[in-house]
Amino acid sequence: MENLKTLENLKNVEKTENGAADAGGAKRAAAWEELRTRVASCAGCELCRTRTNTVFGQGTAETPLVFVGEGPGEDEDLQGLAFVGRAGQLLTRILTAGGISREEVFITNVVKCRPPGNRVPSTEEMMRCGDWLEAQLLLLRPKILVCLGGTAAKWILKTTEGITALRGRWLEWRGIEVFPMFHPSYLLRDESRRKGSPKDLTWQDVQTLKERFGRYRSGPCPVQKKEAAP
Ligand code: SF4
Question: Does the Cβ of 55 fall within 6 Å of ligand 1?
Fold first, then answer.
């Protein structure tokens, strides 16, 4: 219920901003900080009992490109940061090699607290935490939303299709372009670089993503593009 109240408040901020430009986006910035505070103390589902830290997500809020994964893992839970463990480090390497810096995007998860043993979050947990994600997306207003892995893609797109069928396709959620990709933890389980392997397909997806991101990006790419996939 508390989540829903906050979401309604944030929708009102959105309407106000659309009606009359809020100088400097001050209301939006204040709403973002309120959201961060509320997530930090959230007890909206059972995951609050076992978490060390909530993981709000990080990066820049002024970005056209947002990544959404499934949920925090052990490293993320301990540090309170998204995608900082082995999978996160691999994601950083892949994006950097493709010419996309983590500093110019925002990265978060469907659920903000670690499911014990890294299990898949339950539907109820995702429903309860989904309000926070929706509020984040309302405020971030990205042009491109990358769903990392099947759980995030199914949750956002409300589909039963698996990630293998969804990845590399341009889809849509509330006027935002959605681009599902494999979760980096999946790539850690298959090191092959053969044609058609998860790594090879992800490398293709990053090229596609970079091209589309370039349409919305302001300023030059802040990272040096490398010649080959990491
Ligand atoms: S997972 Fe989400 S809804 Fe559940 S306690 Fe954490 S922040 Fe709250």
Answer: no
